[in-house]
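Standup notes
- HV: blocked on the assembly model, inputs below
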Amino acid sequence: MQFTLDDLKRILLESAGADESVDLDGDILDRRWDELGYESLALLETGSRIEREYGVSFDETAVTEAETPRALLEIVNAQLGASTAA
Amino acid sequence: MSPIAVITGLGVAAPNGLGVKEFWTATLRGESGIGRIERFDASRYPARLAGQVRGFVAEEHLPSRLLPQTDRMTRLALVAADWALEDAGVRPDELPPYDMGVVTASSCGGFEFGQNELRNLWSKGSQYVSAYQSFAWFYAVNSGQISIRNGMKGPSGVVVSDQAGGLDAVAQARRQIRRGTPLIVSGSVDASICPWGWVAQLAGGRLSTSEDPARAYVPFDARACGHVPGEGGAILVVEDAEAARRRGARPYGEIAGYGSTFDPRPDSGRERGLRRAIELALADAGIDAGDVDVVFADAAALPAEDRAEAEALTAVFGTRGVPVTAPKTMTGRLYSGAAPLDLAAAVLSLADGQIPPTVNVRPVADYGLDLVTGAPRPAELRTALVLARGHGGFNSAMVVRAAA
């Protein structure tokens, strides 16, 4: 199973909506979360939804330390790989 | 001389009208917003009527970032604040952030949001509880969200004293203006018409269980049997009169006086505090009872409470000494939102020279009140007194005067 940018965008929108000045369909992979209009609580909620939906579990600080969507995708996919391997 | 605080903008979300114009038109027509609860299935509850704000679609007014993190009361408050600022002609992004503050009231916080998250907790588990529960239910959340949305970093806060809080918050706004902040967004919106909010209200034992919207909430009437709860309220822009004048604003009126008291212990035998709150407000405004042209009553609709309010009014103003009205008979009691909505109605009355009616009520004669019933009463109005009592002993009174 792969966690894609589209999956992330869907969960972001459900968890926290989108800033009016930001186009989530643009090139956002390497933009910082604060540039995209998301603060730590929005990421906490997003992380919590990813955990629920994908049956993964993050370290407490993992989600907030991932500074960009690409970093978050990597963390989730590493987890998914790990759980597949287990 | 300390700065004068004036009301320069109104934003209204009321059960009988969404928007100032809609609310005021309906209020002068005597149109009630009380009806059967539509927001949840109330068929198995002993009280089934409420004053609900209809036609409010948050998505049409607020960005998607705010929707997952806001209770209904916060959405209504944010939109009412937008309207009030627009009405005042204030563009917050053009003013220094520390020159603007936010002081609202709250009676119970965001109950519907809290209920949904509690349901997630017990039915699914803690990992299903929204991270936004950390603040979305909280008493101060409306002040916080209005502050963030509009970049207002001046003195801010929340006052929690049940229905009296609606006046106490505006009084606190006036204090901050006197201390030097030119603009405070104040007033209050409450909304807790959800099962959790409802059982909490029912537990208080003060709700009307009547099924008839025209009979359910009849303060000062021999048939008074408790109140119908409502949701909504009003957000007010309060400004230093001098700052408002400099930017060419047209004030609705001045917050001229305020008094608040707390009741003595019920078994003390001492007089309750409402009369003294009224007298403090009149003294603070530097006026006599004869200067008050209309009173907006608290109107609890419990016989003992109605009598206590009538006694306080007749003690200060004499028997049938001043016109009294309770337009909240058209909205239900809005808790912390009630008095700000009455302040809005009061300044609109001053402008229009019309006292809005109390509906559905046949006043008990020996209360000695000149209650305005049935239709608006034309009158020369300069000064209005708004009363609000909170459960547990809070009494507040505020004098508003037409802008000079």
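- HV (later): unblocked. The CA atoms of residues 69 and 131 of chain B lie 9 Å apart. The domain at 257-402 of chain B is CATH 3.40.47.10 (Peroxisomal Thiolase; Chain A, domain 1).
- Next: hand off to the docking folks.
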